[in-house]
């Protein structure tokens, strides 16, 4: 038996040197034993026979795989590597055959080493120990599975050039001071500080970025095996986060539930005062005088005539429509056309006295397109609505109603600054500005557009129900 | 309101970012700090520095600059009408936090997104400032992914690409109609136009770089997007068709699928169910088939029920079950394209088989070594010592392939 003594676990150069001599002499693998250190249990073994005349050949690719695999902690690796290079002398393409059992084992070792290297790149956690001459110093403790510490040094140097660092492992340590990379002896966990100022923020981040609605601990374990946990500060949070995940998810669902105790609220976007205008009107007349006097209103496609809101200044209910129509424009009064008549019928059914309510529009002028002799209603744009929004809010502040009913999407947009879908938000008392309530429902003209009588009837009943609900919110 | 400290802001603004699926730090150029003397490198392949209990990797510091937002997208926790706690980082706070985390090797870099404040331009400008400051002032060589805002000035997008490794624009929903309904301030056509512009710039920069090494980089990691699954009524067919168009049409590197999670203070238009994680998983598998296995959307959806992928079996197996006449596949003879269609056989396995069969006919034991397991593929393949016999004709083949999947509990009593 020939015994080869390698200087250390990572003495790959020593193995290469020995393997070369052994191949030159044509020594069969069964006759060789590789040991670490000079101490052997038995005798010194046989000497390596003198070289023959065949030059050994190893492909570069195979050598690369071997060099990686030799960093593995498997004690058989040196013998395996020699067996492969020996076989490669007669089977030069052995490394290209992934089905070869020896190559399969070697590749598995190399893969495991590469994974360990990758995990060391990922799981080293530096702690800051000080600052000198503008350079920060960091230290880390890491426990790799294989003999990879020296192999990863370059990676850390290239990544953290601008700071000083030291990584200590049980087997070796590596250090960088901005000028040179140094490899030293291994150490202990207690050699390294166990705290860092930023670590609590890192844990905060870790806990916050986790979405409890998607617990998948198996996937986590596959990528971050428990053997690495002891040196990962964030890992201490895992049991707690996992335990609480279900409760947190249920809480999210409960909070989102429409049956929750809190009434739904809509955050209202602030209105912008137009130039040269200021609020605080003490009556509706001065407000409308100011609105008439304002000359920055959107004119295109609009009638010049302004149609003011109508009703007592101290009304408890306020109804907001879209814009005056053809008949409203001619009469100078809101809700007098077909939609207004339908609204009056709904008011009657819900026992609301129109004379006690304040009825107005989001946009105060009629927008239309001329078709021959007819003026066809044209939908106000978001800019149009935006222009009158501030004025509507002033109007609301003068009247100070307890309940506001938004009739249709334009009114909703004018009252909240947002585009909300009617169907999803209608028929509920929503917390609005101050202690007032907002109720969203359809515009009466929507009913007029419905084709069949039955559909109109159902929708009319829904509208009446909404109006009744709005009325019920008034303090007795 | 009392001033929040950095840690409190981090809590709010990381929480707000947890619904974003992307965390990749891969696909960029190789870069180190040896020459600059700064901090940071990218390896090209990306490194996951930690994993959260939701199984997702933590590679980047993924935060929002602010979760205040003018927009009111229903699926979004940060929509203007949401009652969520709000916070805003300053540019310097994000820069410092990124460096503090990076130097401790917690992260590969930064993934910065933001609610839209004041105006899309203003917000985009802040995002660019963070990236610029990191790169120029701090010689930061780590990965930077910026979420861009489609409504912002294209010039700002051009700036962003100079400092970021990757840019992304979230499409969020597969159809323009759904975007209009759920994200009233956004526009599908505008999003796609911005993506196409971005794609043009990326290609242009690549061409320039081929001519000269000194030409400036522009988002070398490409661009990506995210689609939310399960918030609207779109089916898998609609989602995959959109993805396919995005891959081929505007050259996206990745489409991320994010199962809609119930969010606190959710808009009432959204489902309150648990997130459809299995659906998300199937979409990723189908996406993989599109990108790496040479399947077309119509092939993948051949067996779909009501536009949805089969939740019981993976889409490749579903395709095989529908196309049994194309099996069994002889591993020792079949061309690469057909090997890629064998259930249980991945791109790596196919590569290994192609290399190994030059050395002799493969037996089942050889395949077992090359592919780790042959369990899933046995019914579909022929090897030197293996033929599935009449397996493929069996009426119960499907039920044999379906395993009741249950997630393992880590801390079960």
Description:
The complex is a heterodimer of chains A (476) and B (413). Chain A has 476 residues and is an alpha/beta fold. Helices cover 40% and strands 14% of the residues of chain A. Chain A has helices at residues 12-24, 60-69, 77-88, 101-123, 149-159, 199-209, 217-223, 238-256, 284-293, 326-331, 338-349, 382-399, 409-416, 422-425, 444-449, 453-472, and strands at 2-6, 32-36, 127-132, 135-141, 164-168, 172-176, 181-185, 317-321, 358-361, 368-371, 374-377, 403-407, 429-431, 437-441. In chain A, helix 2 (60-69) packs across helix 4 (101-123) and helix 3 (77-88) packs across helix 4. The longest helix of chain A is centred in the first third of the chain and has 23 residues, at 101-123. The N and C termini of chain A lie far apart (106 Å). By secondary structure, chain B is α/β, with parallel strands linked by helices. Chain B is built from 14 helices and ten strands. In chain B, helix 4 (154-163) packs across helix 6 (188-211). Residues 405-413 of chain B have low confidence and may be disordered. Classes of the chains: A alpha/beta (476), B alpha/beta (413). At the A-B interface, helix 4, strand 4, helix 5, helix 6 and helix 7 of A face helix 1, strand 1, strand 2, strand 3 and helix 2 of B.
Structural class by sheet pairing and helices of chain B: alpha/beta
In round numbers, the mean pLDDT of chain A is 89
Assembly annotation: heterodimer
Strand order of the largest sheet of chain B: 3-4-5-6-7-8
Major sheet attributes of chain A: 5 strands, mixed
Widest beta sheet: strand line-up of chain A? 3-4-5-6-7
- Spatial separation of the terminal alpha carbons of chain A: 106 Å
Give the largest chain-chain interface (CB within 8 Å).
A-B, 82 and 78 residues
Individual helix count of chain A:
16
Q: Please report the number of helical segments of chain B.
A: 14
Overall form of chain A: elongated
Rg of chain B, alpha carbons: 23 Å
Give the distance, in angstroms, between the N- and C-terminal Cα atoms of chain B. Answer: 44 Å
**Which regions of chain A are unreliable across 5 or more consecutive residues at pLDDT < 50?**
257-262
- Percent of residues in beta strands of chain B: 5-15%
DSSP strand count of chain A = 14
**Overall pLDDT of chain B, averaged?**
87
SSE sequence of chain B, one letter per element: HEEEHEHEHEHHEHEHHHEHHHEH
Helix content of chain A: 25-40%
The H-and-E topology of chain A, N to C, reads as EHEHHHEEHEEEHHHHEHHEEEHEHHEEHH
